[in-house]
Inverse folding.
């Protein structure tokens, strides 16, 4: 059971990382980026291709590609945010939703064309530690630490730095933030850049632990979206905790029931939780 | 002055009608005679100047096929159009295939389409191969589900269809007359492995990990029966969806039972993911058997693939049939056996088609089918013949990755290395 608990922790940490990026983009810009998971797949493919050139560790590759993913974030802003900035909040949400869905579908086709149908797996061999009879794979333990560090640094960035404070101000009141001299376009571009970096890191970590199909981007987005809905839109702590819980539920469902029932159990629990939460908030 | 028919009245109108009718009849009779004469003349000319159909010499022998150049099976057989064209080149440089009815060798031409790893698409292309391209004989697509759909076109149009990598019994239990398959049915896929385990006698328990798809399920059902009859006890069965990512729960369950053999019946991506996590979580049975442990698996696992046993149709050093021709075809096609372990099965299908045409001595489809049904031909993987429902005799051999190389380990008469298992070197 402890082994399964640890496995759930590893899986949950990757989910958390993925969901935090999606939540960040939604909280600050009100944009639901359905291409978020596809960006994670893109990072995994880039890592796979890079491994043919040099045996980068996942964290080295994350550090090296951070500027690239920041750039992708800026580019993404031009596609799914900038064209709709003059629309009302609800119209811009729908427009960005459709634009990002279209982008996700295009990216999936491009991934298949670029690297074929085979799953992306970027495993690097590491020692497995035996602690009181419990096997702890070294790579997973390091990635768990790195995921926690990334989420922690992102939180610190938002709370303690000027650009981070600008992003939070924009999230609270766009007009008031503008009056204080915050450039909404530049700041939201930065926020989407940060969210894309987080998606990239999640993709690199995910493919280091589990095989990732070139068409799994939308599945990842859907999973992240459920986590964000359960954990609370627009904050970082809620999705991080919800991601970990999802990892535990998936791992335990597989051992207590069957592998085929995992998704049914996860989504039933989530729907049940949302219904209860909703009825609780009404009372 | 002539009175027109419209102006005529009474008896004169009647007379005129009879006269005009007579003229018309005469014209019709003359026209009918003329047309009959022309038709007979044309027929006589055709018959006189044409040769009998049987003596007609075709320019080429058309072999139709589809290959999954895109879609999910493209990683398994994507470049096999090259393999087919390389075989055609090798045969044509030797003059082609001898067809007795025309008394000479005729060059071979493969007509190949991309079925996108999809059954309905494959069926559409097989219809085209038959009706538009006029294929003399058809080779099957990759996988049981795609073959299941594609073979309907051959059956409906009565064209001989040689299935290749499609060993699910469902394909052959439909009463189809025009299909044969070079390989044996899925339940017997691993029978040589269990013969070896029984003969060695060191293994008592087995845990199964099965991907929940058609072919792995079929192989598992057979392996379970064969393991039982070899005296092994199944201590754990884990049937998992094809897209399973985290295997921890299954691995923990298996660890509790400490089986001698962990038998993984799955396609390549699933096998890679499972084996990685099994190695990480230090799952250490006496032996891992992974049914598809080809080059892609070995490259992905690296040192983790060492010692793993699986199934191979052919490895370097086997001397059935004409291995030199196979080596030549592989070289021409630029395909690596490690990356595409199904290439030998395709070669066996080419050899079977060639022999069927030569022995039938004709491209007549019915004659070809009759010859195929009674064929007994030596190929690079052994003797191919077919049972009543079309299932073939070619089966895989247990092979083991030893020092990074694939070796056939059973039966002893064709083994290229000795099976390595705990205690085997003592």
């Amino acid at each position: 059971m402890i082994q399964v608990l640890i496995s759930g922790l590893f899986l949950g940490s990757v989910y958390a990382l993925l969901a935090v990026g999606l939540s960040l983009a939604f909280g600050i810009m009100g944009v639901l980026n359905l291409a978020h998971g596809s960006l994670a797949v893109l990072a995994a493919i880039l890592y796979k291709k890079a491994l043919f050139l040099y045996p980068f560790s996942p964290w080295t590759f994350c550090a090296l590609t951070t500027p690239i993913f920041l750039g992708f974030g800026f580019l993404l802003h031009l596609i799914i945010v900038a064209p709709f900035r003059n629309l009302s909040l609800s119209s811009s949400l729908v427009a960005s939703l459709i634009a990002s869905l279209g982008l996700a579908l295009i990216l999936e086709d491009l991934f298949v064309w670029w690297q074929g149908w085979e799953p992306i797996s970027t495993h690097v061999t590491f020692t497995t530690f035996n602690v009181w009879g419990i096997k702890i794979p070294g790579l997973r333990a390091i990635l768990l630490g790195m995921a926690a560090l990334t989420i922690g640094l992102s939180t610190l960035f938002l709370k303690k730095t000027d650009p981070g404070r600008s992003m939070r101000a924009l999230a609270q009141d766009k007009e008031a933030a503008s009056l204080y001299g915050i450039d909404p376009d530049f700041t939201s571009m930065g926020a989407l850049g940060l969210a894309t970096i987080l998606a990239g890191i999640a993709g690199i970590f995910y493919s280091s632990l589990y095989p990732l199909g070139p068409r799994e981007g939308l599945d990842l987005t859907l999973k992240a979206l459920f986590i964000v809905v359960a954990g609370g839109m627009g904050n970082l702590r809620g999705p991080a905790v919800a991601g970990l819980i999802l990892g535990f539920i998936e791992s335990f469902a597989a051992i207590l029931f069957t592998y085929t029932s995992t998704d049914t159990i996860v989504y039933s629990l989530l729907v049940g939780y949302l219904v209860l939460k909703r009825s609780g908030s009404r009372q | 002055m002539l009175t027109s028919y419209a102006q005529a009245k009474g008896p004169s109108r009647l007379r005129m009608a009879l006269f005009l009718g007579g003229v018309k009849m005469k014209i019709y009779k003359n026209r009918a005679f003329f047309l009959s004469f022309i038709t007979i003349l044309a027929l006589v000319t055709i018959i006189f100047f044409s040769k009998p159909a049987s003596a007609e010499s075709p320019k080429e022998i058309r072999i139709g096929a589809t290959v999954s150049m895109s879609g999910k099976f493209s990683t398994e057989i994507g470049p096999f159009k090259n393999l087919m064209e390389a075989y055609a080149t090798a045969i044509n440089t030797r003059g082609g295939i001898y067809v007795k009815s025309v008394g000479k060798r005729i060059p071979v031409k493969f007509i190949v389409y991309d079925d996108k790893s999809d059954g309905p698409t494959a069926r559409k292309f097989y219809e085209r191969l038959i009706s538009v391209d006029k294929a003399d004989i058809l080779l099957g697509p990759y996988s049981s589900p795609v073959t299941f759909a594609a073979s309907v076109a051959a059956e409906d149009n009565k064209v001989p269809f040689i299935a290749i990598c499609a060993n699910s019994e469902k394909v052959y239990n439909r009463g189809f007359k025009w299909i044969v398959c070079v390989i044996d049915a899925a339940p017997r896929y691993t029978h040589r492995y269990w013969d070896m385990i029984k003969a060695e006698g060191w293994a008592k328990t087995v845990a199964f990990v099965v991907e929940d798809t058609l072919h792995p399920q079929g192989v598992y059902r057979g392996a379970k029966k064969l393991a039982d009859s070899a005296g092994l006890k199944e201590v754990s069965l884990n049937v998992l969806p094809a897209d399973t990512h985290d295997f921890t729960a299954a691995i923990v369950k298996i660890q509790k039972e400490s089986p001698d053999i962990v038998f993984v019946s799955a396609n390549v991506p699933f096998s890679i993911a499972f084996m990685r996590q099994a190695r990480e979580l230090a799952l250490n049975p006496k032996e891992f058997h992974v049914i598809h442990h080809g080059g892609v698996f070995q490259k992905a696992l690296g040192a983790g693939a060492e010692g793993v046993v699986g199934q191979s149709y052919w490895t370097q050093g086997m001397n059935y049939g004409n291995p030199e021709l196979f080596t030549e075809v592989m070289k021409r096609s630029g395909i690596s056996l490690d990356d595409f372990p199904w290439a030998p099965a395709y070669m066996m299908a080419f050899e079977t088609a060639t022999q069927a045409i030569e022995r039938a001595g004709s491209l007549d489809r019915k004659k070809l089918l009759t010859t195929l049904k009674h064929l007994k031909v030596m190929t690079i993987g052994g003797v191919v013949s077919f049972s009543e429902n079309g299932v073939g005799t070619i089966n895989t051999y247990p092979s083991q990755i030893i020092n990074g190389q694939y070796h056939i380990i059973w039966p002893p008469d064709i083994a290229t290395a000795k099976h390595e298992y705990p205690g085997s070197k003592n």
